[in-house]
Amino acid sequence: MQHHRSCHLCEALCGVVLESEGERVTAVRGDDDDAFSRGYICPKATSLGDIHHDPDRLRKPLRRTASGGFEEIDWETALSLAGSRLVEVRQRHGRKGVAVYLGNPTIHNLGATLGSQLFGIALGSHNRYSATSVDQLPKMLAAYTMYGHQLLMSVPDVDRTDLFVIFGANPLVSNGSIMSAPGMKRRLDEIRQRGGRVVVFDPRRTETARVATEHHFVRPGTDALVVLSLLHVVFADGLVRLGHLREHVTGLDEVRALATDFSPERTAAATGVSAAVVRELARAIADTGRAAVYGRVGVSIQEFGGLANWLIEVLNAVTGHLDTPGGMMFTTPAVDLVGLGTLLGQQGSFGRIKSRVRGAPGFSGELPVSCLAEEIETPGDGQVRALVTVAGNPVLSTPNGRRLDRALASLDFMVSIDPYLNETTRHAHLILPPTFALEREHYDVALHAFAVRNTARWSAPMFERGPDQRHDWEILTDLAARVTAKGDALDPLREAAARIAAQVVTPKRLLDGLMRVGPYGLRRSLFAGLTMKRLEASPHGIDLGALERRLPERLFTRDKKVHLAPPELVADVPRLRARIADYEAPAEGELLLIGRRALRSNNSWGHNLVRMVKGPPRCTLKLHPRDAEARGITAGDAVTITSRTGAVTAPVELSDEVMPGVASLPHGWGHNREGTRMRVASAHAGVSLNDVTDEQSLDALCGTANLTGVPVRVARVAPVTDAAH
Ligand SMILES: Nc1nc2c(c(=O)[nH]1)N[C@H]1C(S)=C(S)[C@@H](COP(=O)(O)OP(=O)(O)OC[C@H]3O[C@@H](n4cnc5c(=O)[nH]c(N)nc54)[C@H](O)[C@@H]3O)O[C@H]1N2
Ligand SMILES: Nc1nc2c(c(=O)[nH]1)N[C@H]1C(S)=C(S)[C@@H](COP(=O)(O)OP(=O)(O)OC[C@H]3O[C@@H](n4cnc5c(=O)[nH]c(N)nc54)[C@H](O)[C@@H]3O)O[C@H]1N2
Ligand code: SF4
Ligand SMILES: [Mo]
């Protein structure tokens, strides 16, 4: 049998063709006819079949036994236990007593996206956490404060740009983020072929940097200074060009005043980027008709992620590259995620909530996940006593994982909706495993909204699910009904909503409705409008065209203007200025630790598949030869990496691809914890980068974890022992 679908494993939205015999996937290849990906896939696509077959993937609910093991139980028993235990903890400890953590795969899963929203409302918890605060939060903050909606995030129009400036992203390996664009190598090659430039700022000469026209090392955490200096030159040299946004911005003079202090000569020693490079690039950005400045994870999970993400938007705006072809643009997706977000009350908020123990800033009703461990450990009113995790593995993915590991073990009750018994879910009293992607329908409601072309693609289930299996949305809506708060005036309403949600409003029907009222729906054409039926009849997806101008109409700010100088962000600049001296004089003997993604990885959960882990160990520390020599370290040595929070041991690779003074270790490893059921991953354990990252180190403005440029000491293990592999 042949089956067409869209791969959901990363943001690239590749069309794949899967062959099957009976229940087995026998081949996976790129769909040459896919409207968007035209045959491109990455090595991860094969894991669609591997995960489906993985004998370690859970198919029935597991309950922790008195002896600490797990036993299979039936769904009714499991759901009823989950519901009653959550209600019990909430009754005893109040709404704050139950916390929720949503992980990354939620975004790639329509049912989980919708179901977790409903469950969150039903639970009424004030303790909400997600992978957002170890990822794109600063970009959402920029969108919220500048454009009035946290989901109105700009996307680089890569296929039409002539100058693509990349800060802290490695799309050749990650396949792009908040930039869904299958086949990045071809797209970057095409920029060069049309005489354009690709400029990469990264503390490591990455795979992307190697195919770019230029690469510049930048000291981790200092991008905001580089961008301020670019702005300085744009203002000082009279290069401001607002184009069609001229009448639609506020705050231009404030930004101009801010940049005055940050000449490229002033910031060079701190950032490691020379003034000449900044001056030339600022002029090139201003003089190139079609240019896009883009930043991703490297400029988000850092001390000044809020500032960096904001300033990048400002730089695009003042050089005429915001909302213009070839620049940073806004999408027109078939299902309007931004509109849907408004409907669900998700337009955003900032400065409204603070964490109980540390007073760290929340964002859009969510607290920084860096605070979760202390919120569990610290007694008092509002202490977290129960936790629900949905598609997340925070023990490996969030800073100071060891502390969180210990904290999870102390909870009164924990339930995880997850297909694996892994480093996080091993602490759960109950694991509720959902169907895997091939057993369910799929539409990337979030990622189509961040794609470099407007496209739509529906995937039908490839296999019937087993009689005992439940979809994420079914588990979540069922739990929502069970925990619906009792005893207030809204009771009947909530219960009705939960029942309707579970029985009538399937994700597919909801999508159909949203598509019909969307921009390509019946409004555009009564007869040819986009509907689920049309989408189902288009197995290779539908191309809806290049990105189009959306401003000022699309803005959600009350005055319908782009706010170039949001007061909260402006107020954070002095904190950056005060750090310049520290960056200029790094502590003796210290190295700055950064992460590294690999083509055959998927955050923490791609390592249980032989095809993904075979070959030489990948969880290695990359070190500049100069830094190795200074420490008496040679290639292949095992070294101990020590930070404020702990130490891990890994083998060393020497490479001048890392900036002197910087070391790089990938995240998502460390599968040697007791009591997991991931046999392949355990045999290729590696160590967890997040055992040495620091939960106390945040972007103080917005609470995003500072996971890059972690100060560490690196020393040879003597005598050389077998490292974690
Ligand atoms: N040091 C450092 N840390 C990082 C990063 C970094 O660059 N450096 N990157 C950060 C980023 S960008 C992210 S997004 C986070 C990710 O953080 P998390 O989302 O917490 O971690 P993942 O490793 O993606 O774990 C995903 C979990 O979802 C489960 N899962 C997979 N598919 C499904 C599904 O369909 N339904 C359900 N219910 N569960 C499913 C998997 O089994 C796994 O347990 O990590 C962050 N952590
Ligand atoms: N194969 C694979 N693909 C993935 C994932 C995966 O785990 N594996 N994860 C997915 C997820 S959840 C996400 S969010 C995306 C992320 O997509 P990207 O952001 O493209 O991914 P990264 O490879 O983490 O790129 C971040 C880059 O920032 C650099 N960097 C670190 N610190 C700094 C800094 O201070 N300044 C600058 N300028 N650069 C810095 C790092 O060296 C790295 O090259 O990838 C997705 N795709
Ligand atoms: S690039 Fe992403 S979407 Fe495309 S095949 Fe690889 S994992 Fe799947
Ligand atoms: Mo992410």
Can you give the helix content as a percent range? Answer: 25-40%
Query: What is the residue-averaged pLDDT?
Result: 95
User: Which fold name fills CATH's third level, the topology of the largest domain?
Assistant: Rossmann fold
What's the architecture of the largest domain, going by CATH? 3-Layer(aba) Sandwich
Strand order of the largest sheet: 5-4-19-18-17-6-7
Proportion of residues in extended strands: 15-25%
The CA-CA distance between the termini, in Å, is 39 Å
Description:
- The protein has 725 residues and is an alpha/beta fold.
- The chain has four domains: 2-53, Phosphorylase Kinase, domain 1 (2-Layer Sandwich); 62-125 and 368-444 and 454-545, 3-Layer(aba) Sandwich (Rossmann fold), CATH 3.40.50.740; 137-333 and 561-570, Dimethylsulfoxide Reductase, domain 2 (3-Layer(aba) Sandwich), CATH 3.40.228; 586-719, Barwin-like endoglucanases.
- Helix content is 31%, strand content 17%.
- It is built from 26 helices and 28 strands.
- The strands form eight sheets. A seven-stranded mixed β-sheet has the order 5-4-19-18-17-6-7, covered by helices on one side. Strands 23-27-24-26-25-28 form a six-stranded mixed barrel. Strands 11-10-9-13 form a four-stranded parallel β-sheet, sandwiched between helices.
- A hairpin with a 4-residue loop joins strand 25 (638-642) and strand 26.
- Helix 2 packs across helix 18 (472-483), helix 8 packs antiparallel against helix 10 and helix 8 (223-236) crosses helix 11 (275-287).
- The longest helix has 19 residues, at 75-93.
- It is globular, with a radius of gyration of 25 Å.
- The model has no long low-confidence stretch (mean pLDDT 95).
- It binds ligand MGD (2 copies), iron/sulfur cluster and molybdenum atom.
- Iron/sulfur cluster binds at residues 7, 9-10, 12-14, 41-42, 44-45, 175, 182.
